[in-house]
Each structure stands twice: as structure tokens, then as C-alpha cells.
Amino acid sequence: MAEKADIGVIGLGVMGANLALNLADTGSSVVVHNRTQSVTDAFMAGEAAEKEITAASSVEDLAAALSSPRVVLLMVTAGEPVDLLIAQLSDSLDQGDVIIDGGNSLYQDTARRMALVESRGMHYLGLGISGGEVGARHGPSLMPGGSPAAWELVETTLKGIAARAPDGAPCCEWLGEGGAGHFVKMVHNGIEYGDMQLIAEAYDLMRRGLGMSAADIGQTFRSWNEGRLRSYLIEITAEILEETEEGLPLVDLILDAAGQKGTGKWTVIASMDLAEPTSLVAEAVYARIVSSDPDARARSAAVFPGPEATLEDVEPDAIESALYASKIISYAQGFRLMRSASAEHEWDLDLATIASIWRAGCIIRADFLEDITRAYHSDPGLEDLAEDGFFADALTGASPAWRTVVASAATAGIPVPAYASGLSYFDSMRSERLPANLIQAQRDFFGAHTFERVDRPRGEFHHHEWDPD
Predict the structure, then answer these.
(1) What is the pLDDT of residue 1?
(2) Sign of the C-alpha dihedral computed for residues 228, 270, 136 and 357 taken in this order
(3) Burial readout 138-166 (b: 16 or more C-beta within 10 A, e: otherwise)
(4) What is the DSSP letter of 170?
(5) Does residue 242 have an active-site annotation?
(6) What three-state secondary structure class fits 226?
(7) Which of 64, 95, 293, 386 places its Cα 20 to 30 Å from the Cα of 360?
(8) What confidence tens digit (pLDDT) does each residue in 6-27 have?
(9) CA torsion, ordered 348, 352, 356, 362, to nearest 10 deg
């Protein structure tokens, strides 16, 4: 083995361990460290034993084992552990060395850390990584942002471990300075929340509303995976629904309480800060929150018996249309959010590039992203994905079935918050006039907040004396 390693990996959880193996497979010599020595020992006794990987018993030893300029990839829990490791590494690294944070860090934290590390003469990358365990091992989607000088040093290495899109392009490209990479990863995860909720609503509509078996729904998802919804999440949903345990669908034995780690919530908060509606992701986050208290739902079910959960005039094809149309809205909202953040933070995000690096490796990978890539290549200034000709036609075509599904679900008492949210947003965006005029009048009445007038220039504000008394 080389006297000095090419890259260090700190943190040997599922993602860190598999990325270390991936790095070794693609030509890098790797030195690893984990806070718990037994974890390091187990890793080194496994697949790593056959690869160009060594272990360090401390952060200081890891830094000493690296060739210059030293590159250290942190794969630890987001938050304080990252700050502690940066402080510890700062005593062991030199000017020109690189620290990469591969966790799901909040993008503002990444911008702050980049400024701190650069002030000490080193370079910093916030690296969004998607693909889960398999992606980390065999090729994830990578979203780097931070110090341009750091990217110059690690570009070849990162592109080497990344997934390959159908055209052979690596699913890894420079996104921008500061927290750009982690912001894009955050939005990716927010969209992922939306995708999963949309799929879950389709399952619920078919299970409760149409009385289909889990296996039959699985077959329906398999057929959908041969068409415009072809994606990783649709594929694994079919496999999940066909899995059994002692003759029962395994999905029926799983408690209906969904967890979350925060990136969906961060996406919604960022959208509010930037005044961009990500209403579908918000509904997906709230749906998980509602699901998390099954005892409360059981009490409400006893108090409020609802209508018979049977869908009228709805077929699986109509549900597929509602899912597809809602998916378009969710991605349109996500890309609007990234466009706005790019302008706010001067990141110069290339939306076509982002769609392109999501085509493989990541959790939301889908044929659908080829269409998004094409849309932004054709018109880099596209303000709203839904206005692209391809997607506008798709929304128009799906609209009748979409409305039928949402209306029938409401009548049957089956919640479809993501479908309904997507449809409401769609109808709001295509309404030349909304009832916000009344809201402005109310605000002016009780708080003298003023309003603009349709018969006066924009930016000219007026107050009316509503109640002289």
C-alpha cells in the first residue's frame, strides 16, 4: 500500500463505510477512523480487508497518514459533531488541505463553516450525497458546493465514485459556493418527501377506496414503472407491496407512523424565507406528523365515523394521472425554490445540471428527470417548470382525472393532502384573480397596512378610512 493515503474518511456508519469501499474500488487509497474503535475493527475485518484501506486510531493519526494536500471526508451526524471535528482537525491540517462534510447539514451551517475553515487557510466542501446504502457503495448522486479551490482538488475523485446517468455522464457537478451543495440536497430531500407521500396516497386510494389487495397494487405499480412514472421509488414500492410474511402482506404489519430527520421541514422553512410556495412538500411533512400519533387518530376515528371509503368513478389509471400531475407540481415548486435561492445567495445554480445529476444514483432518480433536464437546457431562464410546453400539456391532459380523484377521495373520506395541495396550487397559479384583495382590505381595515389598486401603478400604496368612528 502507498506510504500515504489519498483520502481520509471519518465516520463508518452505513454511508461512510460504503463510501470508503467505493473510494477504494475507484482507485483511491483510503484511511478511515471511527470514534468507536469496535466499529473500525469490524469494518476492517470485513470487505475492507481486501482493499487499499488502513485504519487510524485517532483523528490526529488519520491526518498524519494522508498525502498533501490532505483531503478528509466527514460522514458524521449533522450539527455539533461536525463543528467539533472541524475544530479537532484544524490542529492537524495545514493550509491548502480540504475538509468535506458529506452529511445532511443545514446549508447555513455549511456557509458558516466554509468561512471559518477558509479563514484558517484551508478549503471546505459541503457535499450533498443521495442514494442510500447501495448508492454510497456503487455510485451515489453527489451535490458539491463550497470552496472552488477544494472542488479543483477533488473533482476527479468525486466524479469517479458517482453514479453514471444513462448517457454515461457522472452524477456529480459543481453547484456553487457557500451552502449551495447542501441547499440542493435539502431540496432533493424535500421533493423526496413529496414523491413518497404521493405514492402512499395512490396506495391508500387503491387499498381502501378500490378494495385492491397489496399484491394487486404492487402489480399496478409494476405496470406504472414501465411508463412515464418509471423511477426508483415506484420500483421499490412494487417490491414492498409484494413482500409477504407468514402469508400476510408485510406492509400490513408495519405501523403507520412515519419518521423524518428534518430535511423536509428545512425545505419548507427555506421556502417561507424566500417567499416561494412548496405547498406539496409542506403537506407531505405534515402528513408524517399526523401519522406519528396513531393513538390520537384512533380516538378521533371513534368519535368521527366517516363515510364509506369507496371511490366512485375512479380507476387506477385516473390515480396514475393524479400522481403524475401532482409530481410535476412538486418538482416545479422545488425548482422554483432553487432558482430563488440562487438569486438570493448569488450561487448561479444551473437547474439543468441539477436535474441531470439526479438522473441516477439518488433516491428520486427517474426517467422524468430527463424531461426536466431537457426543459432547462432548452430554456435556462425558465421561471416555472410547469410552463414548459411538455409539462403544460401533461398537466392539461391529466387535469380531469386529477380533479375526479381529489373530489372522489373527499367524498369517500380518504385523505389526499398532497394531491389536493398540488391541485389547489395549480388552480391558484392559473387564476388571474384571487381573493387576496379581500385579505388586503381586511389588513388595511384593522391595521392600516395599505393596499395597491388595480387602477393605479404597481408599487403605489393606498389607505382607506373604512370606519370613521
Answers:
(1) 44
(2) positive
(3) ebbbbbbbbbeebbebbeebbbbbbbebe
(4) B
(5) no
(6) coil
(7) 386
(8) 999 999 999 999 999 999 999 9
(9) 60
Q: What number is the average pLDDT over the span 376-387?
A: 96
In our burial notation (b when 16+ CB lie closer than 10 A, e otherwise), range 94-125 reads eeebbbbbbbbbbbebbbebbeebeeeebbbb
SS (H, E, C) 257-318: CCCCCCHHHHHHHHHHHCCCCCHHHHHHHHHHHHHCCHHHHHHHHHHCCCCCCCCCCCCHHH
Q: Compute the residue count for the chain.
A: 469
Per annotation, catalytic residue among 173, 177, 185, 242: 185
pLDDT given at position 268: 97
- What is the spatial distance between Cα 466 and Cα 246, in angstroms, rounded to a whole number? 70
Between CA 75 and CA 99 the distance in angstroms is 11
Q: Which three cell numbers stand for residue 457?
A: 401603478
Say whether 265 is catalytic: no
Q: What is the DSSP letter of 51?
A: S
Rounded percentage of the chain residues whose pLDDT exceeds 70: 99
Does the pTM exceed 0.90? yes
Please provide the DSSP assignment of 58-125 as one string: SHHHHHHTBPSSPEEEE-S-SSHHHHHHHHHHHTT--TT-EEEE-S---HHHHHHHHHHHHHTT-EEE
- In DSSP notation, 416-467 reads -HHHHHHHHHHHHHT-S--THHHHHHHHHHHH---B--TTS-TT--B-----
C-alpha triplet 319, 361, 130: angle, nearest 5°: 90
Active-site annotation holder among 50, 80, 118, 192: 192
> Residue 144: is the preceding peptide bond cis (ω within 30°)?
no
- H-run or E-run covering 346: none
DSSP 387: G
Integer Rg of the chain from CA: 25
